[in-house]
Amino acid sequence: MHRRQKPSAPEHKRDLAAHGGALSTSHNDTRSFFNFSQLVLSAGHLKSPPVLKHSKITYFEVEILDMQSKKQICIVDKVRYRAQSLPAAATRFKHQLWRSGRWWCLVVHVTPRGYAHWYGSLIVPPSSTLLDVKHKFHKACPQWYPSRVGLQLERNGPYLKDSINIQSLAVSSIITLYFTDLGQQVGWTTFFLTEYTGPLLIYLLFYIRLSTIYDQVESTKNFRHPVVHLACFCHCLHYIRHLLETLFVHKFSGGHTPLKNMIKGCAFYWGFTSWIAYYINHPRYTPPSFGHRQVSFAALAFLMCEAGNHFINVTLAHQNHSGSKACFPSPTYNPFTWLFLLVSCPNYTYEVGSWISFTVMTQTLPVGIFAFLMVIQMSLWAQKKHKLYLKRFYPEGKFHVARAEPSVEGRQGQGHTTTRISSCFKVKGKESTCSMSHQMQLG
Amino acid sequence: MAASGSGGGSSRADNGYGSQQPRRRKGPGALATAYLVIYNVVMTAGWLVIAVGLVRAYLAKGSYHSLYYSIEKPLKFFQTGALLEILHCAFGIVPSSVVLTAFQVMSRVFLTWAVTHSVKEVQTEDSVLLFVVAWTITEIIRYSFYTFSLLNHLPYLIKWARYTLFIILYPMGVSGELLTIYAALPFVRQSGLYSISLPNKYNFSFDYYTFLILVMISYIPIFPQLYFHMLHQRRKVLSHTEEHKKSE
Fold it and tell me: Between B70 and which of A165, A432, B57, B98 could a Cys-Cys bridge form, CB atoms 3.0 to 4.6 Å apart?
């Protein structure tokens, strides 16, 4: 009594509109059967989502269409069709898809019990999340790996998170998800390693005074002021520390970022490093006006900021690691972490401090311009982070931190860091602990 | 980049005058509209003054060489006045991107002050006349377009002129600009204008000559993009108007 539709080659090549049309006629035929099967099913003990009142949903069906060619782009899952359950809404959505233009649609079709046999359909159990859908999609179409796929409920809506349950999206028997290609993605570790190795090597190239960059005669003639050597040491220390922290301290929760961001970030850092290194290592470099006092004071400040930055990162990573609580980091016995009392993310403050002291140490205008740009960028990131903190930890208000200066625990990578936060908050007189661990995404 | 003012303006036209995207926010209030109308009328009048000045000077002199001197002051004044447009975008009374507008206005102001005004020897060049004429015609049409749009009585002729004449005026303006910069190069090198060299206290150097060359090179990627963007806008706006007319 069950109606079967076997997959056949000509059927695969058939246009979906015809397919939809064929189904609608068959729908009429089996309407009576459908109602009967509904009756049978409703007597069963299958789970039904709270949204749909009348049908029992066992599987969700996801269909992937390519809008421009109006053909199904890949076979995601092919399952035998057992119960006719295609509501009229399905054909309506199909027609909508044709008119959508250049959008690709993932049509999630909710079927009551049994499988819907469609060419290019994806079946996932109702308890699955969006990530499972993406994985299934990836298995069938290998070029779309999950981090590259962006799914939206509406055309220009926000991207849905991977953890969303498919069931919660179902408002009818068909869920239409819009699929966008987020572009080539890179992991965070790769991103930061590339971004920080570049400046390290570039500066050293300038330091050794390659013959193509500087005039050879001048280079050999001139005496190099000790501040040049010190600047090289400090610069390398800064980036080596960043690299080591990326490798050993920070914990990236597997997030990704588009390749474009990496190109932009690398261009910024590498470009500025070349510009800075050119002037500092130039044969005609002029040492700072106030001599050794200026250099030593600035070098000391630089080292302190570096140490502070390091300790902040370690503290945060440690807190993330030890507890599963997500609270604002608290200052510890380490004096460098006392900056938590003043600012919400001392990480950025220390970074800015390093660059400003480097500027003072070398007395070079391009470094000053770079430091200025870093200040702007870090302030923006820190403000966003601060707002995020307020929203998460203090929805009512009552934030005891004096001002939202640049700061963030974890990474300052263009606002897309994912690190687990877990630390305890101390509010004046009240201690609140939030016992959830979550991934924070900046920006 | 000279006539790219129309490029930036067209994006404003699309957003503010509703030809393609849905309005994302309410238009400017009554006071802002009044101010903008006054601003656009003043700018139209200013560029008309420049146009009239050019014609009169041509008729008086009998040749088209060295006409720059007759319109030097109004040109500087009204081109610099275009800086206010950046503020308009920043305050939100004009629905356009601040960065884009800033970029376009700054390129114009750069050419007016940092090249034509600073390097006196190029002021007698014919290329200066080329871009001044292109700018004048473009700006008169553009500002009158905005004026009429703000008053909601846009004659089709002005819209057509704005989206069609750029096809000739934009390349004309760009060629004038490039030739002017090219003519200024030897004088910049000779006099070391706006250049700092090492060694100095702040360890900084800037070579204006190289900078001008980089500016010239930057025209290569930017000009085609803006030009085709304008062509695209033209197709959209003018075909939309035709459809609207047909439906009436």
Answer: B57
What are the backbone dihedrals phi and psi of residue A124, each rounded to the nearest 5 degrees, phi first?
-135, 150
A363 touches chain B (CB under 8 A): yes
Neighbours of B156 (CB within 10 A): 10
Could you confirm whether B177 is annotated as catalytic? yes
Q: Cβ contact (<8 Å) for B203 and A289?
A: no
> Catalytic annotation on B170?
yes
Give yes or no for a contact between B68 and B123, defined as CB atoms under 8 angstroms apart: yes
Specify the pairing of strand A430-432 against strand A425-427: antiparallel
The C-alpha angle with vertex A229 and arms to A226 and A234, in degrees rounded to 5, equals 125
**Model confidence pLDDT, tens digit, residues B35-91:** 999 999 999 999 999 999 999 999 999 988 889 999 999 999 999 999 999 999 999
- DSSP conformational letter for B68: G
Of these residues, B146, B163, B170, B209, which one is catalytic?
Answer: B170
Can you tell me the ipTM of this complex? 0.70
Write out chain B residues lying below 8 Å of A285, CB-based: 198-199, 203
Closest residue in chain A to residue B203, using alpha carbons only: A364
The answer to whether residue B24 neighbours chain A at the CB level (below 8 Å) is no
Contact A364 B198 (CB under 8 A): no
pTM for the whole thing?
0.66
- Which chain B residue shows the shortest CA-CA distance from A368? B202
- Interface contact flag, B203 A365, Cβ < 8 Å: yes
Burial of A64: CB neighbours in 10 Å, binned 0-12, 13-18, 19+: buried
Of the candidates B9, B2, B1, which has an alpha carbon nearest to the alpha carbon of residue B163? B9
| Per-residue pLDDT tens over the stretch A126-169 | 667 778 777 777 776 666 777 777 776 665 667 777 777 776 76
Q: Which residue of B has its CA nearest to A360?
A: B202
pLDDT above 90 covers a percentage of chain A that reads 23
Residues in A touching B205 (Cβ below 8 Å): 279
The mean per-residue pLDDT over the stretch A287-299 comes to 91
Q: B204 touching A, CB under 8 A?
A: yes
Tokens of A10: 């000509």
pLDDT number for residue B159: 93
